[in-house]
C-alpha cells in the first residue's frame, strides 16, 4: 500500500514518540535519521513531560499500579482505571522508544521503594495479574533488571488451552482470554528482544497459536465473533485487545523472527482495511475511561495518528507478502 502523501505529511507532523516510527516504518528512512528523532523523546514532547512528572522515589503518582491513596480517598474518583501510576508510565515510555538510559537509576529506586497494591510485594517480582506482569516483565528487561523469575512465571501459569487469563489466578476462569493472551505474548516478545533469551519462545508461540487458531476474531467452539471489542480500535490501547493491536504484534514477531504472515490472519486484516477512511486515515473510537497525565491522541470520532500509523504499517506488511 502506498500511503497518500498528505496523510504521510500529517503523520510526520507529530510528537517525536510517533514521528520516529513513521520515519522507520512508513518512510523507510535510514536508521541514523529515525534514531535521531527517537533520541528526542527524552527531551521533547510526551516523553519529556512524563519524565518531569517522576517522583523522587522513582515512581509516578506515588504508586505501582494505582496512584497513592487511590483506595483510601473519600474524594469522588474519575470513572475508569487511572493511567498515571508507575506501571502504565513505564509501558508508555518504553513503547514510545525512550532510551532506557534516560531513566537513570529508576530500576534501583523502584526495587527499593515501590510495592504492589495487591500483595505489597517488591515491584520487579510482579504480582498475580497476567497483564500487569507482562508490562513489568517488558519494562524490567528494558531497564536491565534480571527478570528471569518473572519470565518463567508465564510458562508456569499458561492455561491448558495455550493462553492466559487475568481472572485465572483468582479461580474465576480456566479459559484463556484474548486480552490477557495478547498482553502476555507482547511482554514475552519484548523480554526476548531486550535480553536475547529465547528460552520462552515456545511458550510465547503457544500463546500466539491460541489467537491464530481463532483467526484473531472468533470463538473456537462456534466460529462466532468473540466480541465487538476486536473491531473497535482505540489509542492508546492500554490493555485492550483489538484486531489491529494483535496484527501489529504479529508484524513485530514476523520482523523479529524472519517469518511470513500467517494466512489465518486474513479476516483480521480485512477488518483493519475496512476501517480505513476514504482519506487514508483511521478514526479514534471511544478512548478508555480513566485519569491520564495528558492526551496523546485524538478525541472520539476524530482521525487518530497512532491508529493510522499502526493500520498503515500492518497493511504494508501484509500486502508486501501477499501482493
Keywords:
two-stranded antiparallel ribbon; mainly alpha; 47% helix; 323 residues; 1% strand
How would you describe the overall organization of this protein?
By secondary structure, this protein is mainly alpha-helical. The protein has a single domain, classed as Glycosyltransferase (Alpha/alpha barrel), CATH 1.50.10. Helices cover 47% and strands 1% of the residues. The protein has 13 helices and 2 strands. The protein has helices at residues 5-12, 16-27, 31-39, 45-52, 86-95, 106-113, 130-142, 148-156, 178-195, 201-213, 243-257, 266-275, 305-322; strands spanning 282-283, 303-304. It has a two-stranded antiparallel sheet with strand order 1-2. Helix 2 packs parallel to helix 13 and helix 11 crosses helix 13 (305-322). The longest helix has 18 residues, at 178-195. The protein is globular and about 50 Å long.
State the helical fraction. Answer: 40-55%
Q: How far apart, in Å, are the first and last alpha carbons?
A: 10 Å
In CATH, the architecture is: Alpha/alpha barrel
- The name CATH uses for the topology is Glycosyltransferase
- Largest sheet entry: 2 strands, antiparallel
Number of strands: 2
Give average pLDDT, whole number.
96
Strands in their spatial order, largest beta sheet: 1-2
The stretches of 5 or more residues where confidence is low (pLDDT under 50) are none
> Briefly, what CATH class?
Mainly Alpha
Strand content: under 5%
Helix-and-strand structural type: mainly alpha
Tally of domains: 1
Write the H/E string, N to C.
HHHHHHHHHHHHEEH
Rounded to an integer, what's the Rg over CA atoms?
19 Å
Gross morphology: globular
Summed up, the helix count is: 13
Amino acid at each position: 500500500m502506498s500511503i497518500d502523501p498528505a496523510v504521510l505529511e500529517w503523520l510526520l507532523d507529530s510528537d517525536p514518540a510517533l514521528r520516529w516510527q513513521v520515519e522507520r516504518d512508513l518512510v523507510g528512512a535510514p536508521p541514523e535519521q529515525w534514531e535521531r528523532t527517537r533520541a528526542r523523546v527524552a527531551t521533547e514532547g510526551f516523553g519529556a513531560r512524563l519524565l518531569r512528572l517522576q517522583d523522587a522515589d522513582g515512581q509516578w503518582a506515588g504508586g505501582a499500579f494505582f496512584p497513592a491513596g487511590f483506595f483510601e480517598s473519600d474524594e469522588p474518583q474519575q470513572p475508569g482505571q487511572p493511567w498515571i501510576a508507575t506501571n502504565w508510565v513505564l509501558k508508555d515510555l518504553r513503547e514510545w522508544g525512550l532510551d532506557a538510559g534516560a531513566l537513570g537509576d529508576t530500576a534501583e529506586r523502584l526495587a527499593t521503594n515501590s510495592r504492589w497494591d495487591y500483595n505489597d510485594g517488591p515491584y520487579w517480582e510482579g504480582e498475580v495479574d497476567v497483564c500487569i506482569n507482562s508490562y513489568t516483565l517488558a519494562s524490567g528487561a528494558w531497564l536491565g533488571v534480571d527478570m528471569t523469575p518473572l519470565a518463567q512465571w508465564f510458562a508456569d501459569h499458561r492455561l491448558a488451552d495455550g493462553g492466559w487469563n487475568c481472572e485465572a489466578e483468582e479461580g474465576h476462569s480456566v479459559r484463556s482470554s484474548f486480552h490477557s493472551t495478547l498482553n502476555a505474548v507482547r511482554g514475552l516478545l519484548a523480554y526476548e528482544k531486550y535480553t536475547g533469551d529465547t528460552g520462552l519462545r515456545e511458550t510465547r508461540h503457544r500463546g500466539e497459536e491460541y489467537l491464530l487458531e481463532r483467526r484473531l476474531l472468533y470463538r473456537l467452539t462456534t466460529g462466532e465473533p468473540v466480541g465487538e471489542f476486536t473491531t473497535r480500535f482505540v489509542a492508546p490501547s492500554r490493555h485492550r485487545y483489538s484486531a489491529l493491536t494483535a496484527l501489529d504484534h504479529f508484524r513485530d514477531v514476523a520482523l523479529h523472527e524472519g517469518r511470513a504472515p500467517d494466512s489465518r490472519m486474513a479476516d483480521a486484516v480485512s477488518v483493519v482495511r475496512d476501517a480505513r477512511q476514504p482519506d487514508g486515515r483511521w478514526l479514534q473510537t471511544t478512548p478508555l475511561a480513566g485519569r491520564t497525565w495528558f492526551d496523546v491522541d485524538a478525541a472520539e470520532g476524530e482521525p487518530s495518528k497512532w491508529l493510522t500509523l499502526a493500520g498503515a504499517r500492518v497493511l504494508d506488511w501484509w500486502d508486501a507478502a501477499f501482493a
